[in-house]
Amino acid sequence: MKKVLTLLLVAVMLLGLCACGGNSNNPTPANPDPGTEATDTIKIGIFQPASGDNGAPGKQETLGSQYANVVQPTVEINGKTYNVELVIVDNESSNDKAVSAAQTLVSQDVSVVLGSYGSGVSIAGSDVFGAAGIPCIGVSCTNPQVTLGNDFYFRVCFLDPFQGTVLANLAVDQYKAQKAYVLTKLGDDYSVGVGNYFKNAFEKLGGECIVETFQEGNSDFTSYITKAKNEGCQICVAPISVEAAALFLEQAATQDIGMPILAGDTFDSNVIAGVGKGKNLDIYCSTFYVEGGNPEFDSNFKAWMESDATALANNGGNTTIAACSVLGYDAYFVALEAMKKAGAFDKDSIKAALPDVEYDGVTGHIAFDENGDAIRDSAFVKHLNTETGEYELFGIQQVK
Amino acid sequence: MQWIQQNLPYFLAGISVGGQYALIAIGYTMVYGILRLINFAHGDIFMCAGLMLVYLSASLPFYVSIPLVLLLTVLLGFTVERVAYKPLRKAPRMSVMISAIGVSYLLQNVALYVTGGLSKQYPAIPWLSDTVTVFGALTKRVTIITPFLTIILIVLLVLLINHTNVGMAMRAVSKDFETSLLMGIKIDNVISVTFIIGSFLAGVGSLLFFSNYTGVTPTVGAMPGLKAFVAAVFGGIGSVPGAVIGAFIIGICENIIKAMGWTTFSDAFTFALLILILIFRPTGLFGEKVTDKV
Amino acid sequence: MIEKKKGSKANLIFALGLVVLVFVLEQLLPSSSMLLTVIKKSAIYALAAVSMNLLNGFTGLFSLGQAGFMMIGAYAYAILNVPTDQRAAVYQYFDGGIIQFSITEGISSVLGNVAGLIIGVLLSLVVAGLVAAVFAYLIGLPVLRFRGDYLAVATLGFAEIIRAFFQWDKLGPITNGSNLLRKFTNLADFNIKNSTGQVIINLSTTILVLIVAACIMIIAMMINSTYGRSFKAIRDDETAAEAMGINLAKHKMTSFVVSAFFAGIAGALLAMYQTTVQAAPFKTAMTYEILLIVVIGGIGSLSGSCISAFIFVGASEWWLRFLDEEKYNILNTHILRSGFRKVVFSVIIMIIVLFFRKGIMGENELNIAGFGRWLKRLFTGKKKPAIETEAK
Predict the structure, then answer these.
(1) Which of A229, A230, A243 sits opposite B215 (nearest CB)?
(2) Cis bond leading into C230, ω under 30°?
(3) Which of C161, C168, C350 sits opposite B271 (nearest CB)?
(4) Domain range for residue C106?
(5) Mean pLDDT calculated for residue range A369-391
């Protein structure tokens, strides 16, 4: 018996060594040597959730990058054309799984990483990317902590303090609200962040906030809605993930919450639109892009989704364009722009080139400030038309 | 009147959630009574029932899909027992419990694979999902139905346990496993029946729960499962009425805690209650007095 | 007795050999290698599993609170090690928090950077363990009186309660509420860098493995002492053990507290590995994972726990990942897609739980001395000496 066990042990160790051997046999050299076969492909890592709380929007964001890869599968650097390959890894919307997912990308020697949806996972992965020296372009991670004090992280979206202020202004300007109910999810950096910045901005404008939190895995929001009604709040701010939002809205409609619901970019999803359809709800969200902003892009993207069954399924079964998909698309091109600017595609050159990259994307002009955040001063505010189940542009909110 | 109107929703939610916990808790308490096993997979069977209706109702009308889901849930519970617990009948209790954890892990991962990790929208069952007004408080009809349906099912179950041969066999097995074996009771059959009843009630519970809270995710069963188990311990594990009362108490308390603004602790409170009851009354509320242990 | 001494000496050499092997690997492989990541994570899980094994396997107390104790350790470590100038950024919603010092920084300012780092981290680890142990003592007072399954549920419940407390925003100035703690001293700080900031010698994996090996050695020593024999006696038969004069309450408590101490250290190491800490991931699911590692390795075998931690982490994070990738699908089927890895993995676990109930090692330990003799025999071609068979 002992022999068998020992053999097993030896086998396991050999397996481990083989696997690591296999790993170290084909690394792409950090400094590419043009002319050899292996360097014809540039790897871009896609660090996105495909399961868990943010699975649905994570897939949509990935979809944008995938579509960009279809539109522009090659990049020309110094007169030579390279293929771009996307390496997609699922970070499971979970901060502890994000570390090993990030490590997987690092071990595949990607030149640059796009992602993620969700600020928590981006922060959790950022140290791994930072240690490996791989630059990242955050797509829709809006928490300030993602780029703050982290030279390797850039992002193409606006930030939570901005978003919180936009929502507070909307609440006061549009509804003359005095009292707001804020619902956030424990342990979700995005949710807690927006909730906090909203509270600060709203209180500065003379309002009063009631902040409540819920645990992960909670599905009963009845008490929260009752509380919001009983306290006489005039507005409800719920910057929560799509999954929780679907449950919350369903119950809010049943109990007739009777006040407008404001939220950040997470609500800009066809899942939310589907839940809200035909219900007595008043939903607003701040977001990065409105369908119709670039008709040519819209129609091409829709045509591509219709031609690809998997893509259509990942977008939730219809061709509504989510803002995060468009950002995923823009982020991809920003990465290519950085490579062109650097004249190389190793991680160090890209990192050095990124701060000065400027690019006119579908979502507008993208340039980075000293923190690596995109300089943006306006957000689109959308309102859900509950009859058609589609978002409509409500206005463009600017904050200086 | 205004006070009622403001606070009634908390109680309605509490009673409704309590009823749903009760239906799950019975599965725990019966299995524990007979096998002395905390069936950690029970919450996941509940989740699977929800998921099955999502997929089946997409192509079948409700009058077919709902009975079919209940049947499949029963089958799932039966299979889990035969495959994962029966081979370990003579093994130490810890092995069986670990096997239960393994099954729970497996079911969650299969659900993760099937759904692609995304939350599935539970279909709105006509009539059950309609909004109604009770004393000025708006809620779904299912909220009102739940406690009554739960009590009817429990009464039927207690009748079954007390007045049929199978029930008698169950009581015998839970009193003394070895002796009942000697008396010629087919233990395996009795255990299977236990699992079938437990799974059936979990299936009904899933109908009620997800009609109210319409998102099915792979891990959605874990928390209700644990809470239902706490309810079972609270009421005195092995006792059916105890589990039901425990479940209602926990459901209502949980919502009162939330109403008081202690939302961070709504889950923790359930466990605190469990520890308190274990310290001061280790057999639960009805652990000793009630005789119809199953 | 002499035989035993020899055995433990061989084990010590073997452990040192492993550390050296890791050191060599770390210098040879690129720092991005998955193998190093798996070694790091599995070392941490091995320590967590061994600490759980001490309780579940050797003392027979079925506790499911491990993730809770790991969380306490992780938080204690992280809170005490966020550099003062980063506190404002980390505790952004709580005005920089109320704790305004960092152990590592404090000691560094007195003893210099290198000594400060080593002593500071070791001290923080011990503190992390002690905090977890204190919590365990308090929890143990009421909980350890419960029998079997009730103990399991009560410890599980306590872990959830503690998790809720750590997420409470009233404690935010200390715990940062439910938000991430970050920027604290982590494993990468152990890499030796030259003046331009480039890493010359990678030490992050080696130092971690060294700490884990030392902790496991201490647990092994404890198990081989009179305490260990008392634990086993309690596991096998409580009444008999009590009749033999073993103080049940005292020994159970010792086992519980020691287990929590090392779980706390494992949590602190996990924090160092992840570089961020948050209460949310320390759920029951994490305890279940550690329990499964213990079961796969063999309940009551320390070396089994270590081996299975490596296999478990390697399989779940690395070797089976290809199952998730659609490009390996044959004949246009869609079987391989995101999540399939986990299905396969959980099926394997079920097979082990059902058919290989003893796990990899059963209750045996890896016998290095015996392995050496076996190798010798293999090369010299000699038959097993009769005496040894008799000795068994």
Answers:
(1) A243
(2) no
(3) C161
(4) 30-281
(5) 87
